[in-house]
Write a structure and sequence with these properties.
- By secondary structure, this protein is α+β, with helices and mostly antiparallel strands.
- Helices cover 40% and strands 34% of the residues.
- Strands 4, 5, 6, 7, 8 and 9 form a six-stranded mixed beta sheet that branches. It has a five-stranded mixed beta sheet with strand order 11-12-10-14-13, with helices on one face. A three-stranded antiparallel beta sheet has the order 1-3-2.
- A hairpin with a 4-residue loop joins strand 4 and strand 5.
- The radius of gyration is 28 Å and the shape is flat.
Length: 393
Amino acid sequence: MKYFGKIILIAVAVLSFFVYFQPASSDAGEIIVAEGMAAIIGGNNVIARDKAIDDALRKAVEQAVGTLVSSDTMSENYKVIHDKVLAQTTGYIERYKILSERPEGDIYKVRVQAEVGKANLMDDLRALGLLHVLVEKPKVMIIMEEKVGGLYGTTGFESVGQAESTMMEKFINAGFNVVDPDTVKANITRDKALRILEGDNAAAAAEGLKYGAQVVISGKAFSKNAGGKLYGTNMQSLQATLQARVIRTDTAKVIASKSAQGAQVHIDELQGGALAIKEASEKMSDELIAMIVKQWSGEVYGRSQEITVMISGLVSYRHLAAIKKLLEKETQGVKAVHQRSFTGGIAELAIDYGGKSTNIADELASRKFTGFRLEPTNVTPHRIDVKAILEGK
């Protein structure tokens, strides 16, 4: 029996080892090593040790915050970050272990390895409006086609506008700037609207740029009667389906796509359908906001992003070579420069860069080249248009 018990203990120990040391999934928190310290008062090492651990965990969370916001944002908003985030470290530390601890004179020092969960941290920073500082206070344009259908789709009311209004409210509450949908509809032709709704990303991007929007959300919302009235009542079951995609205006690329469903029971088909669309829109908005923030946060963390640089007015390939050399060899944060084309004095470059596009635009505008200079004409988070101007002009 004792032998059997030992086998059980060994098995549990081995299993615990593999559970604890298994590789972290892509959704796991960030592993951070930090050191904390606290004064030993009255020879009480126990209290000092607890305070040193708290100090180390707070510093671990502070390091994690530093990977999400810029140093300027950190310093300008330190009191807010300290009061709202750093003061509640237990909400972000998923687990930790003590690597070393020791008293040194009147100071107790503790070194910890902590796993900081970034999901909750991102949510709180976003709620404080701090993540958006890094993406130039993003503006969003929302354009949705909406229909409330009757029994078996026999009728349709296209002017309810529930999806757009619900999504607009959600995005505004999340800290985004939103283009007024009524303004867009008043100034957009039906032909162009249909192209956007049918999936013309270039048309969506072009229209979004007119209103200074970094992203355009377009899609369709539809509700219908699920099969007549509920037995013995005048109540009806209404179901709604939404489909939407998020298009980055400076590149016309889809960065997120999602669908959502909603259901409501109501005596009125139109009102019930609108409520079902509202439910689906709320789900959709929460998921799209999370996907957009994740996309932008990935760029904020310092990983490289692709920035398109369009250069016009080039009169010599040597000029292009000089620009490429500057970007590849002398511009900090540039990991690679890819030449896509050079035709008729116009060049297109794709740059893998770990920073803001404005930094590259500043570098190009301030640098003196032999025989010419560069003048930025359009700068967005993922695209820079510059014009080569010959000396003396």
